[in-house]
Amino acid sequence: MIDLRSDTVTTPSAEMRAAAAEADVGDDVYGEDPSVNDLEARFADVVGTEAALFVPTGTMGNQIAARVHTERGQEAIVERESHIYKWEVGGLAQHADLQVRTVDGGDRGVITPGAVAAGYVEADAHRPGTGLVCLENTHNSRGGTAIAADRIDAACEAAHDRDVPVHLDGARLFNAGAALDVDVARLARAPDSVMCCLSKGLGAPVGSLLAGSEGFVASARRVRKLLGGGMRQAGIVAAPGLVALSNRDRLPADHENARRLAAGLDELAGLAAREPETNIVLVETNAPAEAFLEACEAAGVLGVPFGEHVVRFCTHLDVDREDVETAIARIEGR
Ligand SMILES: *Cc1c(COP(=O)(O)O)cnc(C)c1O
């Protein structure tokens, strides 16, 4: 079976398993796990922030950020198709007591300064006030679009002009950096906090990081404990995370494979795929997505439905060029 459902399906490499087995550990709730401390420091260095916090999942990282940046009852401006709004069980309402205001980022999911201005609400006797703007890069549901630094900066400037902080959901920020050929620290410069997943294209078994200023991370550490995310000898999972960080140089290979997959599928009858920017391929299907995916599965390829007539295929560490060619042939012969 060629599993293209997500880049989260990768299993840890021998090097990661060895790193886990040999990790120096301690009680991370006491701040005494050297592997976690090392990973947090390395990550802060890579994204150019003062500090970082290791969290079990990207979802928890996003939710902690929302909680730290806001006050109960405020509004958060989010993109209509964003992960933090669509795929986190309504967490902004449940964990941070926020009301969301969706804005449409168009087919690439870019929040413009105009959208921030139009969505902004000033607090008064009747209105809650905007407490947060959330950005996403790459934008998953819009097809893994890599949003350029100047677009991120512009949205942040519009928010900061109104004293509103910005959180960047950078679950796949390293894919964005690779696609744009720009340092992730550049992409993370203007936002007040950034979350990145190690468990996606970088191939770690578990874990994400949430980064920002010292003060932000100190508050985030408390909220992580509140949510039950204070882990003890977490170095066992942080050590493979350190190996994962060094996997970022190979992301362009996933992007190349995604382009080949899209081009191959686009040539098949009843399918259309635009050229992907990163490792996510959205395919429009004449047949209903569910029926198409059943036929793919029977032929030995897995994907996920992303709309009634849209499916998502994702390239990752555990599929190589040959697998991509095989997947195209299997889908053609389904
Ligand atoms: C996967 C993902 C998350 C959440 O990460 P988990 O580790 O699965 O909780 C957040 N944002 C985006 C854009 C994602 O793709």
Q: With helices defined by DSSP (H or I, 4 residues minimum), what is the helix count? A: 14
Unreliable spans: none
**Bulk shape:** globular
The N- to C-terminal Cα distance equals 14 Å
What is the helix fraction of residues, given as a range?
Answer: 40-55%
Largest beta sheet: strand ordering? 2-8-7-6-5-3-4
Largest sheet: 7 strands, mixed
Radius of gyration: 20 Å
Per DSSP E runs of 2 or more residues, the count of β-strands stands at 13
Task: Describe the protein in words.
This protein is an alpha/beta fold and 334 residues long. Helices cover 42% and strands 17% of the residues. It starts with a strand and ends with a helix. The model has no long low-confidence stretch (mean pLDDT 98). It has a 7-stranded mixed sheet with strand order 2-8-7-6-5-3-4, sandwiched between helices. Helix 6 runs parallel beside helix 7. The longest helix has 16 residues, at 251-266. It has helices at 14-22, 34-47, 58-69, 83-86, 91-96, 113-119, 149-160, 173-180, 184-187, 214-226, 235-245, 251-266, 289-299, 321-332; strands at residues 2-3, 51-55, 75-79, 99-103, 130-136, 166-169, 193-197, 208-212, 271-273, 280-285, 301-302, 304-307, 310-314. The chain is globular, with a radius of gyration of 20 Å. The chain has 14 helices and 13 strands. The protein binds pyridoxal-5'-phosphate (PLP). Residues 57-59, 62, 83, 136, 140, 169, 171, 197, 199, 208 line the site of pyridoxal-5'-phosphate.
